[in-house]
Specification:
about 325 residues; alpha+beta; 4-stranded antiparallel beta sheet; 7 helices; 14 strands; about 25% helix; elongated
Length: about 325
């Protein structure tokens, strides 16, 4: 598309197969946005586009990601507050007509399989190395290994007994991130083995996970934790770090969790299904093209599109016939 749509806290730059979201770095910009800086979202990673009224004379353009397409969204698991949703673009209400135009343009570029979950991550994860300070230790990730270094003021005796931990990405089955804005936030790594290994000595950690071993194999994991996760609390689990007031904030711990999750998925066997196409290659209906040109003309007459933009976009639409 080659166009730019500037909103509050972010700017969307439209390309032929993706939209580049650049986040502002101002004082009022959510810290998560400042941490992410920018993200390129392929159109193949989107399931739908919505335009709704916002607060205080604004409208909200939102690109809805497909399930399984974005490691950040998968790690967050629905826990992000609305104002920290990186797929929302807030615009002044007087730009609603322009926002509606771009919403229609985006919908026309969605893949035919957009209503299906993605079979792999299509959006890039934040890049390692990364680290953050948790309540009971410090977490680090170099792209291949995750390390937990316990704090003498916050770590439980069980974690001190286990010692500082280092996990290879290839040893993990996944992660669980519980927002630090909850009362019991944490980041927990889920080892592949039923009984996690003591990464200091190589011995079993079964004694730290109760008499029945570390996994709740009957599927009775609490608080949405996947079956197979340790049955003890994260304060006792050497594969977890705790959050708290000022420890493990969203803008530090969530990108960290997303980067680990993407690396874990990358080490697993790739699915046999072919990747979805980046662009809908079907020819457009002439009536649809005519309607879009008419809409473009209205924007031009209203002064929302320049002469050059009008000419270029009209030529592009005609070329799709």
């Amino acid at each position: 598309m080659g166009d730019v749509l500037a909103g509050i806290h972010a700017t969307w730059e439209f390309d032929t197969d993706s939209v580049l979201i650049r986040f502002e770095r101002g004082i009022r910009t959510p810290k998560l946005f400042q941490s992410l800086r920018e993200r390129r979202i392929p159109y193949a990673a989107l399931s739908s586009v919505t335009l709704t009224p916002g607060k205080r004379s604004t409208v909200v353009l939102r690109a809805v990601p497909r399930p399984g397409a974005d490691p950040l969204v998968e790690a967050a698991a629905g826990q992000l507050k609305e104002g920290c949703d990186p797929y929302r673009l807030v615009l002044p209400a007087e730009r609603e007509v322009l926002a509606e135009y771009y919403a229609d343009e985006l919908r026309a570029l969605l893949d035919p399989a957009s209503d299906e979950p993605a079979d792999r991550f299509l959006v890039a994860a934040p890049e390692a190395p990364m680290n953050f300070k948790a309540y009971d230790g410090r977490a680090g990730f170099d792209g291949e290994r995750i390390s937990f270094r316990w704090s003498w003021t916050g770590a439980s005796s069980a974690k001190w007994k286990a010692g500082d931990q280092t996990f290879k990405v290839s040893e993990l089955a996944g992660i669980v991130w519980r927002s630090p804005e909850a009362l019991d936030g944490y980041l927990r790594l889920l080892p592949r083995a039923a009984a996690p290994v003591d990464h200091r000595t190589g011995g079993s950690l079964g004694d730290l996970h109760g008499p029945g071993g570390s996994a709740d194999v009957d599927g009775g994991a609490p608080d949405g934790v996947p079956a197979g996760a340790p049955s003890v609390g994260p304060d006792q689990d050497p594969a977890a770090v705790l959050f708290g007031l000022g420890y493990g904030p969203v803008h530090e711990s969530l990108p960290f969790a997303a980067a680990v999750l993407e690396s874990v998925r990358r080490t697993q066997p790739a699915p046999a299904a072919s990747a979805p196409a980046l662009v809908n290659a079907r020819r457009r209906d002439p009536a649809d093209i005519a309607e879009r040109i008419h809409h473009l003309g209205e924007l031009h007459q209203a002064g929302l599109v320049t002469d050059a933009e009008y000419t270029a976009k009209k030529a592009q639409l005609l070329a799709e016939l």
